[in-house]
Amino acid sequence: MVKRWLLIILAALTLAGCGYNDFQRLDEASKSAWSEVLNQYQRRADLVPNIVATVKGEANFEQETLTRVIEARAKATSIQVTPETLNNPEAFNKFQQAQGELTGALSRLMVVAEQYPNLKANQAFRDLRVTLEGTENRITVARNRFIQTVQEYNVLARSFPTNLTAKVFSYEPKPTFTVQNEAQISTPPTVDFSAPKK
After folding, report:
1. Among 20, 31, 48, 87, which has the highest number of CB atoms less than 10 A from its own CB?
2. Hey, where are the domains in the chain?
3. pTM (whole model) above 0.90
């Protein structure tokens, strides 16, 4: 009986010392941070129909730009996100690409909207634009929190001796957000100060 209790205590101390509890804590923290990312992406997706409806009211607005936004939203919201998405780099990347396409389409829409004075003067559109900008900021904050949590988890999964615990309990490193256009960002912009042709 005493031997059994000693083995239980030894096992508990071993698990505590090998990072098992840290894996549990960080796994839950990453799931919580991921839920907040999804919450903010959903908030943005819910804004899109109102933005599109407001912009459609502007005569001669670029139909191609609107179509891209609508298609990007449909693609982004059609991807089924499950808790397993966090542990599946391929599914995670597919989700990330769809959200990136929606971000790009919305950015393009806002740039094009600048060319329409009536739209810029429309109070409903201005309010939606402010709400969208706030939502994009919330997405950035939520993604940063998720990235930090996943980084802590991945360091734990790869560091000795906790990497042994990771192997025993199948704690694989988690995928995280990456920069979609990394090659484009690393290329310095071309600056041309020559006078425009008339």
Report:
1. 48
2. 22-178
3. no
